[in-house]
Amino acid sequence: MQAKDVMTDEVITARPGATVSEIAELLLKHRISAVPILDEADRVVGIVSEGDLVLRIDDAADHGSWWLRLFAGPGSPAAYVKRHGRRAEDVMTRNVISVAPETPLGEIAHLLERRRIKRVPVIDQGGRLVGIISRSNLLQGLAITKPLPDTKPSDEALRKQVSEALKVAPGFVSTGVNATVTDGLVDLWGIVWTDDEERAARLAAENVEGVRGVTSHLGRMSPYLGTE
What we know:
By secondary structure, the chain is of the alpha/beta class.
């Protein structure tokens, strides 16, 4: 699945001239963690998050976070504008992390985790905002069952996919293991060395999209094979 399949189309946004108070009200009213900032052509030019506003609260309490002063310097114009700006264009993050409508959900999940963010704008090739993806959207995507009944792969196609999955399963040697598929149900046949190899084979098959179930008939290689 891709971003366009689960993204929220109706996105709460603001203009660069919106005041910090207006942005805070939007976050509270709609219970969201960030607001994309759009120019007159509806292109994304920045984003204001909870973190941007919390920074201002911290500054009011203790005259600035010590780690921010360490990197930006107490006399940094950029830090001063970020802390004391009154409009979105003053406090927003300009280097916006975004995805395209065709970005796969798995890639988006890794992006959110790696960047430690809760949501990401979906932007088309013209730089216009078309949606937003949050962690809850990703969960909704996982909850959707695929493939649909009229588009399910054939047993032969599934068998090929399972065979490929067995070849790349970490720590598992697929030599001597064969898979048969009947109506989406996979049977594994052959010989493996350990219980872990059998579990790896079963999981590799189960994770192939369209597989309805897996039954293992795998035997064990004798540990004394080839020894005196």
